[in-house]
Amino acid sequence: MAEKKSPKEKFLFGCLGLILIVVLIVAYLIYYFSFSMNHLPEGELIKKENSPNNTYTIELYRANGGATTSYTLRGEVIN
């Protein structure tokens, strides 16, 4: 027959589960806002160049940073 868990054990497992969920949500948000390419400005394509062996392509874009910043260059390496 299965043993019943005490209220202390239920509370402990509930707290650990809640902490795990919060940590996973925070880790996802850090990834999404820090490492995801979705938040980069679009810009206009300036130049597209291939590597010497045509393995990679780099695309350079001129992006407007907005009213408070200057124009920036963004490069994308495409495999």
Topology readout:
Blueprint: H1 7-34, E1 44-50, E2 57-63, E3 72-78
Antiparallel strand pairs: 1-2, 2-3
Oligomer: single chain
The tally of domains stands at 2
Specify the structural class.
alpha+beta
Give the termini separation: 58 Å
Number of separate helices: 1
Biggest beta sheet attributes: 3 strands, antiparallel
Strand order, main sheet: write it out: 1-2-3
**What is the overall pLDDT average?**
87
The helix/strand order is HEEE
Indicate the percent of residues in helices: 25-40%
Please give a structural write-up.
This protein starts with 6 loop residues before the first helix and ends with a strand. The chain is of the alpha+beta class and 79 residues long. The chain folds into two domains: 1-39; 40-79. β2 and β3 (72-78) form a beta hairpin. The protein has one helix at 7-34, and strands at 44-50, 57-63, 72-78. The protein has a three-stranded antiparallel beta sheet, with no helix packed on it.
Question: How would you briefly describe this protein structure?
Answer:
The chain is an alpha+beta fold. It contains 1 helix and 3 strands, in the order H-E-E-E. The chain folds into 2 domains: 1-39; 40-79.
